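Hey, can you fold this one?
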Amino acid sequence: MTSNAVQAAPWRSGQVVALIATLSMLQPLATDAYLPTLPAIAAAFDAPVATAQWTLSAFIAAFAAWQLFAGPLTDRVGRAPVIIGGVATYGLASALCAIAPGIGWLIAGRVLQAVGACSALVGVRGLVRDLYPPAEGARLIAGAATFMSLAPLLGPVVGAWLATLFDWRAVFILVTAITAAILFFTGRVLRETNVRRNPHALDPGPMLRTYGRVLAHPAFRAYTLAAAATYGGLFAFLSGSSFVLIRVHGLTPTLVGYALALMVSGYMVGTVLCRRLIARRGLQHTVYVGAGLQAAAGAVLAGLALAGVHHPLALIVPMWFFGLSHGVLQPPAQSGAVAPFPDNAGAAAALLGCAMMLVATAVGAWIGASYDGTVYPLTLTLAATSLASLLIAHTLVRRDGDVRHHG
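Sure. Predicted structure:
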């Protein structure tokens, strides 16, 4: 019996799935639920579109930067204290967002939200690597993603509904209340899994050397680039869709909430398909399938836009398939990136997440700066990220993505 199997014995897989799903909800709760209110936030603070979108981009940028510290921190002190501290910080930051007197305060609250959500997510990714080999970990992540996607599925609809009945602040009040429940649940079920703590994980020299070793591994680079490409496309949609659907197509915030939820329903279907593909064909083949589906969705988005088909459904329907492809591609990419590093799972998860968020930050900044009142910047950016996913899957992942011997 492997050491991983020994560690996993006291846990029930259902507990692990519930913990992954619950902690993974923090990030979409901080993004998807308030997306339909972005135009209202811009109007409330008399801010331009690019400034309002920084409430999203600053979250992602802070998430990216903090992972480089949070990962080694979980390797040094353990997963549990970082996770609990992260959830508590996230709750306090959500309350700050709810009472923010200006756009600067709101952006500051979003940065603190990112620190909290990042700490929890990096911790739970390390926990999964502590307990399970790569393929089994990927199936658990995909299973948890099916339940986690309830947050981005319901979040936009509930957020739009609250903003219509009250105002945008009501969304952050609800998130604060939900976080209190998540903190209680996490405190009840969480147990420490890091039995290989590294006392030097936070020392600058060893930390940089660890990151260097992780970055030098070809499998890490392959899977991380695949994960970053698909996440960049998802973030393009998240940051730009509300402005396109409301200001270009004239939809109400409530209808935008339903449109976002529809995309997430595709993601849910994709995570179910992902689990079956991983069990039958492994991580690499699952990434190929997800990337192929994503490239097809991106081509349709760009083709319809360039053909002059400027109807909301020309964005919403292809994005359902994009969501499905993201659900297929992301779990094996995340698991494959961390798989070669059982002794430095926290650092590997941190560098993976940092790369994903840096790409997302750049894409979000581009979407805000390029917004011109048309569908073209959004649809063509989605097509470009989808093509990148396909190229990475069939070159780097095909060549360097065999991590079965790291189980």
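DSSP finds 16 helices and no strands in the chain. Let me know if you want another pass with a different chain boundary.
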